[in-house]
Specification:
The chain is an alpha/beta fold and about 180 residues long. About 35% of the residues lie in helices and about 20% in strands. A six-stranded mixed beta sheet has the order 3-2-4-1-5-6. It holds the Pfam family His_Phos_1. This is Phosphoglycerate mutase.
Length: about 180
């Protein structure tokens, strides 16, 4: 049986987060995080986006880029403000929030994101201690997979910049509260 310790850590803060915008793929960090020597020895996995790579560099880490950790593809909504979308495409935005199979932006649905992250959790990791730097929607999808949450419940999880979700596997996935 494989034993896995996995910490999913959100990238550091960006202007898009502060302003209430969806990210662009090349969105940079507002400020890089401080070096974290406590993370030495963890095998690091990274989503491919610039903000994730900059977070890893600031923390003093390097790692393998894993496509399954990429942010949700928001198609035409990338870089758009939530206020503008509510004003100009409110029904489409609400449809996307209410129906996990919807992708009115022409990108990836939340259901597709969930499948990608769930498949990676079940088949993409070997034994060991892993740190994966990724995005709020990916972390929500991991929590949804592990706890069998509804899409609506998982969307209420508030994932802060540099926030971390601790998971472990020994026969089945478990979420750990760390204090």
């Amino acid at each position: 049986m494989r034993a896995i310790e996995l910490v999913l850590r959100c990238h550091a803060g960006t202007a898009a987060q502060r302003l209430g915008h969806f990210h662009r793929v090349d969105e940079p960090l507002s400020q890089p995080p401080a070096l974290d020597p406590a993370l030495a020895g963890w095998r690091c996995l990274l989503a491919p986006e610039l903000r994730v790579r900059q977070t890893a560099e600031g923390l003093g880490l390097s790692g393998e880029v894993v496509d399954a950790l990429r942010d949700c593809d928001l198609g035409a909504w990338q870089g758009q403000s939530l206020k503008a979308l509510q004003r100009d495409a409110g029904a489409a935005l609400q449809h996307w929030l209410d129906d996990p199979h919807a992708a009115p932006h022409g990108g990836e649905s939340l259901h597709q994101l969930q499948q990608r992250v769930g498949d990676w959790l079940e088949h993409g990791l070997g034994p060991g201690r892993w740190l994966a730097i990724t995005h709020p929607q990916v972390i929500r999808a991991a929590a949804r997979h592990v706890l069998d949450l509804s899409f609506a419940a998982s969307q209420r999880l508030d994932i802060q910049p540099l926030g971390a979700l601790h998971l472990s596997w020994y026969g089945r996935w478990r979420m750990r509260v760390v204090g």
